[in-house]
Amino acid sequence: MASLPLFQTVANAQEQPGCFIIDSSGQVNRLDPLCKRDEQQKLRNVMKAQELYQQGFDLGRRRLYKEAVEAFTQAINLNPDFVEAYIIRARIRSVIGEKQGGVADFQKAIDIYRARGQSQIADLLLVPLNSLKNEITFGQEEQGQTEVEDEPKGK
Questions:
Q1: Closest residue by Cα to residue 109 from 96, 95, 127
Q2: Is 111 helix (H, G, I), strand (E, B) or coil?
Q3: What is the pTM (predicted TM-score) of this model?
């Protein structure tokens, strides 16, 4: 029964909005300034990711593909759920021959859409994903075939 006051403290604290921690003595300590700082940083990251996305898009239009991929990569590092950045980066990677990277990006975008409950959009990405996988498979089959010179016909 000694822990009942602690449970009551936790229950009361959970009813209040905000960020808090309960120390070993059962005291509720507000952490709102720290939590708000974290939220502000997340917002700054999302905004910077959007800026990098636009930069990548512009670089891609100018056919500076490697630089565009780098900008999209930076955007994704700041906002790992930036599904649009994965899709555009996948398309650019497929153009510059980084087909495995393109497959990984399309797959990540599909996973994000499915996690969001947007399966119909995810299903639309299966077409370019499978097309890219087929290109990879076809390329590997071509490389696996060695040119064989015609053997002289014997009597």
A1: 127
A2: helix
A3: 0.69
- The Cα–Cα gap between 100 and 89 comes to 12
DSSP annotation string for 4-34: HHHHHHHHHHHHS-S-EEE-TTS-EEE-HHH
Cα separation, 85 vs 128, in Å, equals 15
Query: In Å, how far from its chain's centre is CA 122?
Result: 14
User: 22-31, pLDDT tens digit by residue?
Assistant: 666 666 666 6
Q: Which helix (H) or strand (E) holds 49?
A: helix 32-61
Task: Give the tokens for residue 123.
Answer: 């299903």
Contacts of 51 (CB under 8 A, 6+ apart): none
Structure tokens that stand for 104 in this block? 């990984």
In contact, 46 and 56? CB cutoff 8 Å? no
What is the pLDDT averaged over residues 8-17?
49
Write the burial class of residue 110 (CB in 10 Å: 0-12 exposed, 13-18 middle, 19+ buried). buried
Number of Cβ within a 10 Å radius of residue 64 = 14
Strand ranges for 4-153 from DSSP E: 20-22, 28-30
Instruction: Answer for the pair 53, 73: CB distance below 8 angstroms, yes or no.
Output: no
> Can you tell me the distance from the alpha carbon of 113 to that of 104, in angstroms, rounded to the nearest whole number?
14
Question: Is the confidence at residue 135, as pLDDT, over 90?
Answer: yes
